[in-house]
Amino acid sequence: xxxxxxxxxxxxxxxxxxxxxxxxxxGERNIVVLSAMxxxxxxxxxxxxxxxxxxxxxxxxxxxxxxxxxxAHVKDLYSTEAAAQKTTELLDEVFVLxxxxxxxxxxxxxxxxxxxxxxxxxxxxxxxxxxxCGVKVRLVSALDYLRIDEDGEPYLSQITAYWExxxxxxxxxxxxITQGFICRNDNNEIDNLQRGxxxxxxCLIGAALKLDEIQIWTDIDGMHNNDPRVVDGTKPVRQxxxxxxxxxxxxxxxxxxxxxxxxxxxxxxxxxxxNTMEPEAPGTIINNEMRQGAIKAVAAKDNITAIKIVSSRMxxxxxxxxxxxxxxxxxxxxxxxxxxxxxxxxxSIDNDTHLHAIVEDLKESGTVIxxxxxxxxCVVGDLxxxxxxxxxxxxxxxxxxxxxxxxxxxxxxxxSFLIHQDxxxxxxxxxxxxxxxx
Length: 438
Hints:
Blueprint: E1 2-6, H1 14-24, E2 30-34, H2 40-52, H3 56-77, H4 81-100, H5 108-132, E3 137-140, H6 156-169, E4 175-179, E5 182-184, E6 190-192, H7 197-209, E7 213-218, E8 239-241, H8 242-250, H9 262-267, E9 271-275, E10 284-287, E11 295-310, H10 320-330, E12 338-340, E13 344-349, H11 355-362, E14 367-381, H12 390-397, E15 405-408, E16 414-420, H13 424-436
Parallel strand pairs: 1-2, 1-7, 2-4, 3-4, 7-9, 8-10
Antiparallel strand pairs: 5-6, 9-10, 11-13, 11-14, 12-13, 14-16, 15-16
Helix pairs in contact: 1-3, 2-3, 2-5, 3-4, 4-5, 6-7, 12-13
């Protein structure tokens, strides 16, 4: 048994929904996680914002516009009046609910309830289409089994218990459809998973049930060995270790959220990245196997700010670094890269919301220098110290690029360079020529 997740683009139109339905009715028993139709969540965010601003006229206008769009989808998706009518009645309920929020005090929980409607609509639409096609299908509400604690962490044991019991009671069902982004919190309010959304849900279900495989279907043929928007001739990486995939996701590969595959990694359930536009392509498999002596891919993370703190007081001083790191913790800002010398610390952040306050606090520790518009270039693969030569090849490719920082040794899978964004394209192209040219 497998869990298959499809993103918004994959179910972005009635035709795409039909294509997805073919993929999930493959003769196997599958759990299917669906996102909202592409564009729907953005519309719901806009509607929620107008409700928040108490501009009810514009909010209702946007709701009507979305309703007309979905009415057209119903006409294109179903061939029987019964299926169309069943879906229309569900959509009626959703849009009545959306309009009712005009009478509610706007709170974060109201906003999350509004955003949840996109997945509720898409999952009902696909379920009704499958029923029309004669498939034994069951819609399973994520609000019934997916709950998060006050820190936003899911209760994995509840997911396991619910699904084990539900599968046992529905042995004749071929396909189970569920939502990916939505859940409930400890106050029993509708909430969402934040990081990774539907990908995270699929990995939670796959890990909880220890399924054969978790499949993440997008509109990209797996994870590429470089950014195809910048470098010509990139190729999909056919296999990645979980740690390699996490490094690439964190440092710029947008196909995955860096933390969403953690549940799969801990339980050893492989994750496969596949392309709904090219379903026959092998995609990328992510598992616990390490291919020795191979550089897998290069990624880039933009909008980085570099901060350097220089002080002679740092020399042989105890607690100096702790004070610096506590400054970032106090301002709820995470750090990407860190390098140190006898009298200085350089680090980078990707969120400059609290930059001014951070700099003011750091001035108590020394002279502070800030460089904006920076970019992290990371090279990922088997970079263990016994693999002599990889570092020199990578450094050789970067010989004409001004480098602000280098981070190596913190991971056996990653070497990172901090450069100005103006040099990003040249750096990515140079690394591709050196590492991946045949």
